[in-house]
Design goal:
One of its GO terms (molecular function) is carbamate kinase activity. By secondary structure, the chain is an alpha/beta fold. It contains 8 helices and 17 strands.
């Protein structure tokens, strides 16, 4: 039995349309693979991104905001997406594991993550959220939201970017570890967790979205996981991605992968945070990390994906 943290990208949840029904269908397909991992005997904690969902909900909030019914702040919107996505995942896992041998035990935990109030990320927003826009669409959005910042996202279009402070501590990690030990399936630290700072011995929510890969690493370290699995849209990390000399990275030592990172092979906001998260987990724990696609998740023991080790 292995204790595994599985990190799902927000795009593994996003469907072709933004309706709840479509996203629930996407979640159901995603969780079938994770259910198989659980049935194989592994203890699995699930964390997930929320970039598309939190951005869409933010737009909804501001479109209908009024003095009598003001828009919610970003930390609260993050909590709302943790709840909605967690509910969809919990329900799907309940349906897939609800039989005599594997009783339904998925549980969603609204999770807070401590960040530094002086993190320079608050002055330099980099985390993409919400839908993609072409250049003209982005210019129109800036008319409606002049305070928003938009940047090109890995050549796929423009997206709004917000502060992405570095996670320092998963507040609820002891609870998550306890749930795993009691054979529950915790769905936790969604969207990286709600960013909070410590002020006057109290936790205070702040505006930002923590990168879920970094929080997944912090969670995996805090609960003493045996493995970190980052599931994304591609089978492997690649050298020279999308170029004629593209090369898949298979099993790789952490020092070699760090050299590739320093050479600039991985795009910021895309594969780079996954690589950095995998490196940190392996260096701090001595255990392995895997980066691969969702469709490979039921073959993790066969050597698929990019496997990072000491």
């Amino acid at each position: 039995m292995k204790k595994i943290v599985v990190a799902l990208g927000g795009n593994a949840i996003q469907a072709k349309d933004n309706s709840a029904a479509a996203q629930q269908e996407a979640v159901s397909k995603t969780t079938k693979v994770i259910a198989q991992m659980i049935e194989n005997g592994d203890q699995v904690a699930i964390t997930h991104g929320n970039g598309p969902q939190v951005g869409n909900l933010l737009l909804q909030q501001y479109q209908d905001s009024s003095k009598s019914n003001p828009a919610m702040p970003l930390d609260t919107i993050s909590a709302m997406t943790q709840g909605s996505i967690g509910y969809w995942m919990q329900k799907a896992l309940d349906d897939q594991l609800h039989h005599d041998h594997f009783p339904s035990q998925a549980v969603t935990l609204i999770t807070q993550t401590i960040v530094d109030a002086n993190d320079p990320a608050f002055e330099n927003p980099t985390k993409p959220i919400g839908p993609f826009y072409n250049f003209n669409e982005m210019q129109k959005q800036k008319i409606y939201h002049p305070d928003y910042v938009y940047k090109q996202d890995a050549g796929r279009g423009y997206r709004q970017v917000v502060a992405s402070p570095e996670p320092q501590e998963i507040v609820n990690a002891p609870i998550i570890k306890h749930l795993l030990e009691q054979d529950f399936v915790p769905i936790a630290a969604g969207g990286g967790g709600i960013p909070v700072i410590v002020r006057d011995n109290h936790l205070q929510g702040v505006s930002g979205v923590i990168d879920k890969d970094y929080s997944a690493t912090k969670l995996a370290e805090d609960i003493e996981a045996d493995q970190l699995v980052i599931l994304t849209t591609v089978d492997n990390a690649y050298l020279n991605y999308n170029q004629n000399n593209q090369k898949a990275i298979g099993k790789v030592k952490v020092d070699e992968l760090r050299e590739y990172l320093d050479q600039g092979h991985f795009a910021a906001g895309s594969m780079k945070p996954k690589i950095e998260a995998a490196i940190e987990f392996v260096e701090k724990t001595g255990n392995s990390a895997i980066i691969t696609s969702l469709k490979n998740a039921d073959e993790l023991d066969t050597g698929v994906g990019t496997i990072v080790y000491n």
